[in-house]
Hints:
Layout: H1 11-14, H2 18-39, H3 41-49, H4 60-63, H5 71-80, E1 95-100, E2 110-114, H6 115-133, E3 140-143, H7 154-163, E4 166-169, H8 175-184, E5 189-192, H9 194-206, E6 218-221, H10 230-240, E7 243-250, E8 254-259, E9 266-268, E10 273-278, E11 291-298, E12 309-318, E13 330-331, E14 337-338, E15 343-345, E16 348-350, H11 352-359, E17 365-373, E18 383-388, H12 395-412, E19 418-421, E20 437-439
Parallel strand pairs: 3-4, 3-5, 5-6, 6-7, 17-20, 18-19
Antiparallel strand pairs: 1-2, 7-8, 8-9, 9-13, 10-11, 11-12, 12-13, 12-14, 15-16, 17-18
The structure holds zinc ion (ZN).
Zinc ion is lined by residues 260, 262, 264, 267, 322, 324, 326.
Amino acid sequence: MSVAGITYWNERLERMARPALERHQFDLLREQLGYVRSRSPFYRRKLDAAGVVPQEIRTLEDLRRLPFTEKDELRESQERLPPWGDFACIAPKDAVRVFQTSGTTGRPVRVMLSRKDWHENFYEQFSYFRCGFGLTEDDVLFVPFNYGLFVAWWGFQMAMERAGLMVIPGGGLSSKDRLRAMLDWGATVVCGTPSYLLYLAETARKHGIDLPGSPIRRIVAAGEPGAAVLATKKALESQWGAECFDDVGSTEISNFGFECTCHQGTHVVESMLLAEVLDPETQAPLPDGVVGELVLTNLCCESMPLIRYRTRDLVRFNRQTCECGRTFLRLDGGILGRTDDMFQFAGVNIFPTQVQNLLHGVDDFSQEWQLVVPPMGSGRHLRIRVEPANEQVARARIDAAREYLVETVKYRVGVTPDVEVCAIGSLPRVEGKARRVVRETA
Ligand SMILES: [Zn+2]
């Protein structure tokens, strides 16, 4: 029975009971392992070293026997054997499109895609997204993006065009001209990173452009956690007067998750990818509801499929059937942060973005904050430094807000913090990436 108002791309798979879905995944996985072992010298070495016989991989227990793939290994392979390394399963002559990672955490990784991956698998993944977002061929999509080596909206645009939406390519324009173009041509959907979409909204206000009164009814946000961070999402939705959807993926592993119209987390396309959530330190599997590292395996890709790829993204699984009827697991709150930012305190894994989310839900504090970590064994509490939102916030409101923050962090994060309210403007302001975590030495 269909759920009213919900459109699926492949209802049979999207609503499959978990045992059948897992059988489907393991059938694809065995095939994929045999394929990568025969095509990729990199994976042949890794699988043979781990003593893996592809045909024997049948259960979640067996899955644990497979080696992980780290981004550094991909980088090393391409440095040793430029330009492509030895992990690809296709020859460069079979590729129709290339991209590279942004290189924010080291040398960029180059990725090539075959005709099948680009035209069929990308299309398939984005078709799940499109139906999840509730887009139809009547929609007009504006893509404010500078077309280059970064994968960003290339694939999304290709798939939406093929599905029959009208696409307005917004490369090579100033932000103001982009806003004019999207209004002149009647865009109903706009995509971008959360911070760029907020910047566009600010630019619109500056030039007297009424976005909430425009025909734009949906925004698709990717590339940063923002779209699933409640406070950021609310800001995006009110400034655009549109419904905001989270879209997740990466250059190396492709497009793996979308938020549906029920807005209850970000669904993983489990018919094409196998997802695990593991303790970032011990790599032990974690139960639903516990924050850990997302590990993904490409079940369909033929060009550069990755096996148990450590994404470094922090997520929380929810395998309960969504209100939309989909059984595809959900990442509660989308991507919560990166393992690189995580630290341990009082036996608890602390993710700075988690504290940020809780803090940004308190209107009486400004958006600036710091987390002060005392040395081990000092007996001191973790300290959150905040500032009042403005001079008008009364002392009594600040005390109540402080108490509220202590209680929420205690309940949601699992440690009791001290909250230090600093003078307005005293916390450091930086352009770009702020240093939020401060370690005390004594
Ligand atoms: Zn759903």
